[in-house]
TrEMBL record, chains A, B:
MF annotations from Gene Ontology: DNA binding
A Pfam family that the UniProt record links to this protein: HxlR
Name this polypeptide is given: Helix-turn-helix transcriptional regulator
Domain HTH hxlR-type span(s) in chain numbering: 15-113
InterPro entries xrefs: HTH_HxlR, WH-like_DNA-bd_sf, WH_DNA-bd_sf
Keywords: DNA-binding, Transcription, Transcription regulation
Recorded superkingdom: Bacteria
Source organism: Gluconacetobacter johannae
DNA sequence: CATGGCGGTATCATTTCCGATACTATGGGT
DNA sequence: ACCCATAGTATCGGAAATGATACCGCCATG
């Protein structure tokens, strides 16, 4: 589990936000979910899509998503082994969230848009 | 900044998701933003709403939100000092994201819904 | 005079996360 | 015999995020 946030979820109204965040927190979970919305994928496919992830991290993140009931892990007992990851029903309910994130990222998180902090003439 | 994620944002399509996540990552940013959507608030108000946050953390998170251009910090030079935090235009664009998170949290992150892992009869 | 509220900062310690590397098992190809 | 691919695990170490605590100036109140 990432960053152990609150255990009690029945606190202030804003807590639902935190509660939701707990599930997609972790360096790679957002992207993993995003890719799984496209289709079911096997381990090595995800690995290729995430490029910079290590095997250990991918495994860890997938295991957490599985533990949280968002992702289903299906082992096909073949040689060579084949393991497929897909979204559960619960996982699919995250679609609006992931898409909201993606849309915002596309619109407002581009490098060119980032530096609206203060005066831009600090290139001394 | 939290968890230093990728620096390059022009990688795979899923990256926009990660990029967006960078801005609301941090244990308290989600809730802070949520509360600021309600209205402008001063430091101590936020502190009361977040209950478990330490002064240091609240300051840190607010400073990061400010640095990212999502939150505006206004100092009223009075006695006692009054500092108000409000959302910037850029910050307000996060509304769909935060609300998607809140809605999901309300619907699917309740304690009763969490344990769909495996067989529940492991209470040995 | 001591206390409390405001909005912080400074310092230190801990917890947690993440990355790198090495190792495993099976079977196929050459 | 040796290397490759799949899908992992195990172990170690460092970096980063978070928490606890103490301290600051200022003023009003009791």
């Amino acid at each position: 589990m990432p960053r152990t946030r609150h255990v009690r979820l029945d606190c202030s109204p804003g807590c639902a936000v935190e509660a939701a965040l707990q599930f997609i927190d972790g360096k790679w979970k957002g992207v993993i979910l995003f890719h799984l919305f496209e289709r079911t994928m096997r381990f090595s496919e995800l690995r290729r899509r995430l490029a910079n992830v290590t095997q250990r991290m991918l495994t860890t993140q997938l295991r957490e998503l599985e533990r949280d009931g968002l992702v289903l892990r299906t082992i096909h007992p073949e040689i060579p082994p084949r393991v497929e990851y897909s979204l559960t029903d619960r996982g699919r309910t995250l679609h609006p969230v992931i898409m909201a994130l993606k849309d915002w990222g596309d619109m407002y998180a581009r490098p060119a848009t980032i530096p609206p902090a203060t005066a831009p003439s600090a290139a001394a």
